[in-house]
Amino acid sequence: MSDQKAALEWRDGDIPVSTRFDDPYFSLADGLAETRHVFLAGNDLPARFRPGFRIAELGFGTGLNMLAALIAWRASGQPGRLIYTSFEAFPLSAPEIGRALRAFPEAEAVAAPFLAQWATGARQILLDDLEAEILIGDAREMLPRWGGQADAWFLDGFSPAKNPELWSGDLLAEVARHTAAGGTFATYTAAGSVRRALSDAGFAVERRKGHGNKRHMSTGRLNTDD
Ligand SMILES: C[S@@+](CC[C@H](N)C(=O)[O-])C[C@H]1O[C@@H](n2cnc3c(N)ncnc32)[C@H](O)[C@@H]1O
């Protein structure tokens, strides 16, 4: 699979903005706090962490969500490795990720071992407490072929208006198909089309308060068959 690079510009110094999608990689307000609110709390983490817990993500970007999850995993004192799988079509380079993470000292402080491996071209990252794999390519092709399952999904494409391919009904049906029993998703968007697609895919979708001044976000748990 060809490695298509991200197309970036930097706003206000160190905020990466995709010129391909005309959208920032994370909240201009406080990306780390938003990640924690939307993706961690939205999936009821760290409370649901247990040994071997599996997170999957659409849109790896700067790795900020992964690092926030790793920080939470460490703080929770779970033994063993957090399993993290992310799908990314346009990977950032290690220097680009390093620059983006400067805005978040807490994430930057734990990023070095990951970045050292990423800089070599490795897309499987192994630390004492993290087993991560970033699957490079269009998620619409890669996810149907993925053999894994996730206990929690971070749905983090660019906005549905600008990046509709990461929010299509077909892809979200694949998300559900790759969700373990009792598994959940969280996303910052409350767009009706996304909520309907996730509901059609088999999730009980819930609207929660969004981060900061955003009114709503969405979470959901996979319906059981009975
Ligand atoms: C909002 S950013 C993700 C931010 C990221 N989670 C972080 O922690 O920095 C959305 C990401 O989705 C990726 N993306 C967009 N379309 C995609 C597709 N069809 N398949 C896979 N990745 C895609 C973009 O390249 C971008 O990195």
UniProtKB/TrEMBL annotation:
Pfam families: Methyltransf_30. It comes from the Bacteria. InterPro entries: MnmC-like_methylTransf, SAM-dependent_MTases_sf, tRNA_MNMC2. This is tRNA (5-methylaminomethyl-2-thiouridine)(34)-methyltransferase MnmD. It comes from Plastorhodobacter daqingensis. SUPFAM superfamilies: S-adenosyl-L-methionine-dependent methyltransferases. Residues 107-221 form the MnmC-like methyltransferase domain.
